[in-house]
Amino acid sequence: MTDTSTRPTTRTPSGSAPPARAARTSWWGRQDITRGFWVKLALVALVDALGVYGVLAAGAQKQWGIVAFLVVALVAVNVVYFSKRMLPAKYLVPGLLFLLVYQVFVVLYTGYTAFTNYGDGHNSTQADAVEAILVQNEARLPDSPAYPLTVISDGDQLGFAVVDGDGAAQMGTAEEPLHPVDAPIENGHVASVNGWITLSFNDILEQQAEVFALRVPISQDPNDGSLRTPDGSTAYVYGSTMVWDEEAQTITDTSRDIVYTADQDKGAFVSPIGAQLGTGWKVRVGLDNFTTVFTDSSLRGPFVGVLIWTFAFAILSVATTFAFGLFMAIVLNHPKVRGRKIYRSLLIVPYAFPAFLTALVWQGMLNRDFGFVNQTLLGGAHIPWLTDPWLAKISVLVVNLWLGFPYMFLICTGALQSIPSELYEAGKIDGAKPWRLFRSLTMPLLLVSTAPLLIASFAFNFNNFNVIYLLTEGGPDDLSAPVDVGATDILITFVYRLAFGGVNRQYGLACAVSILIFAIVASISAATFRKTRALEDLI
């Protein structure tokens, strides 16, 4: 008989036994299996697949920062979208990820690039620069044996299969040096290679540019040279006149007996007299890009000229669009003007069309020989609106006036209608004339609401790439300038030319100028906003 007198008995308030503890359910059991769940599962699976592919691709390139970001992003997406406790995060995560990728990363990478020599000739590592220099200076060796050649392909990749001096088959590609391969040999040539397609003579003719340009390294040592073919049937050894000494970090030009030493500060191979080889590598250069803008004589003059015109363009654009928009707003705000709604609707038309399309239309209208302005309005005149430096500047300002005044008209109309009519009546009772009312009443009250918008308009026009590039492309070009620059270039189009125009693209320098643009606009905007606080006392 069991003694239960000393055992505590747990009872619920009603005297019944306590309920059994609920069994812990699995993650799958906590999900609501609906049609929406399957759609979510498919979308997240697609995101995971793309993310894993990105992780593998970035890892292969040793981009560990990208790998870390992708792993964190994938974990966050899966946790957020399969949790019932993170409903707000479901809406915030996509926008946050896009913000990090397209805004934060771009800004940070621009800042990083501004402190490097990144650009044409300095866009990779030192090892790649060495290989490029050796390849660029290769010539056929006069004592090179002739290798019977078979051209093979695997999709878009081409390769060489040759028979060496010992009668053995070897193959290689542009990325993979020659190596032995088990392949049949017929009539002194490799007949076929497993997994590769043997190109016929007609196939070689169709791809002769790619075949003749193909370079297959002899070995991993770049000094050993490479195999190339002048006819598609025989390959020869090409050797470089440059010799790379990895231990001494030098490249020797054997044809001129000049030794170039690796300069890690410049990211280039430099001779004893200061001459540099054309191909270098990317290194950090500190503030050199920023000081170059102001100290390099070939860049300082054009930069100062572009800076002055940028300020003039931004100020005149804001002043003209605001003045004309305000004038039209005052005229159409007068109660005695009939059909005001119709006129206001018509004035919005330039604002309704896409700006890039309007700029292209104006470019055609201002054409010197066939444009509507010269041929129709001016009776067949040949005025170089877009090819004369001063006329091009005037044309840019006029087109920007056409694009910008409807916006100013809208904000001025709204600001005017918000001014109480009692203020005007009081002014008239005091004997104020119309000009006095405008100067002492209308303008101060108008600037209270429009001043921040005018500052934003200045910042926009300071970087108004579209109207400049689509109308004149920054031209007409200044052929006397030592750099690629035009008469209507503003700083943002000047940066575009530095980065993507000409034959010497300087991404690091362009990023440095971009940071200077930001500093200028931010400083002017901050100072102007402080000044506009005085207008708040009018309210």
Please tell me about this protein's structure.
- With 539 residues, this protein is α+β, with helices and mostly antiparallel strands.
- It folds into three domains: 34-114; 142-249, Periplasmic binding protein-like II (Beta Barrel); 295-538, MetI-like fold.
- Helices cover 51% and strands 11% of the residues.
- The protein contains 18 helices and 15 strands.
- It has helices spanning 35-60, 64-81, 87-113, 126-136, 201-206, 208-213, 288-295, 297-332, 340-347, 349-352, 355-365, 372-377, 389-417, 421-429, 434-462, 465-471, 491-500, 507-532; strands at residues 138-140, 147-154, 157-163, 169-173, 179-180, 185-186, 189-190, 197-198, 216-217, 226-228, 234-240, 242-245, 250-253, 258-263, 268-270.
- Strands 1, 2, 3, 4, 5, 8, 9, 10 and 11 form a nine-stranded antiparallel β-sheet that branches. The chain has a four-stranded antiparallel β-sheet with strand order 12-13-14-15, covered by helices on one side. Strands 6-7 form a two-stranded antiparallel ribbon.
- β12 and β13 (250-253) form a beta hairpin.
- The longest helix has 36 residues, at 297-332.
- It is elongated, with a radius of gyration of 36 Å.
